[in-house]
Amino acid sequence: MKTEKQKMLSGELYLSNDHELxxxxxxxxxxxxAFNITTDEQWDERARIIKELFAKSGEGIFIEPPFxxxxxxxxxxxxxxxxxxxxxxxxxxxxxTIGSHVMFGPAVQIYAATHPMSAAVRRTGLEFGKGVDxxxxxxxxxxxxxxxxxxxxxxxxxxAGSVVTRDIPTDVFAAGNPCRIIKEIDAVR
Length: 189
Fold this sequence. Notes:
Blueprint (H helix, E strand, L loop, with lengths): L3 H6 L4 E2 L3 H18 L6 H11 L2 E2 L4 E2 L3 E3 L5 E3 L4 E2 L3 E4 L5 E3 L4 E2 L4 E3 L1 E2 L4 H5 L2 E4 L2 E3 L4 E2 L4 E2 L4 E2 L4 E2 L4 E2 L7 E4 L4 E5 L5
Parallel strand pairs: 2-5, 3-6, 4-7, 5-8, 6-9, 7-10, 8-13, 9-14, 10-15, 13-16, 14-17, 15-18, 17-19
Antiparallel strand pairs: 1-12, 11-12, 19-20
Helix pairs in contact: 2-3
């Protein structure tokens, strides 16, 4: 029989009030809290917390506090990634993967967590998640929301305030609510 955590990681319906999951979120709240009170002079402490927080974290990750996530252990981050102030990642589900050389504007939100459409199922407390895949060399503008299950192709740009509800291909500028392709990106500019 699968644990609630195993169900969560495989994208199945699970109960988030499971003791193991509660302990994981508590651990993460403590790490995020410690990170969020660091000062700009505490680079070594920030780097230590980042390494402890995420499942995989590359080199050169820079996060402006405050930063929030559910577990951290379901987030994989490449090299040279920048998060501006007040970003939130709800990593309750299959992994969220972020490539290398990605920039997030302030208040970007990434959601793997979601809930059943059926009210009767929601009343049971069951929920599920869908992984998110963000490629390399991407810029996501401030206030954008990346919804569960979305894949964003490498070298694309997501406009500020966009709500990304479906996959975005490589080398495009996409914006809006819902986010849609505005134009292809010229490799030179």
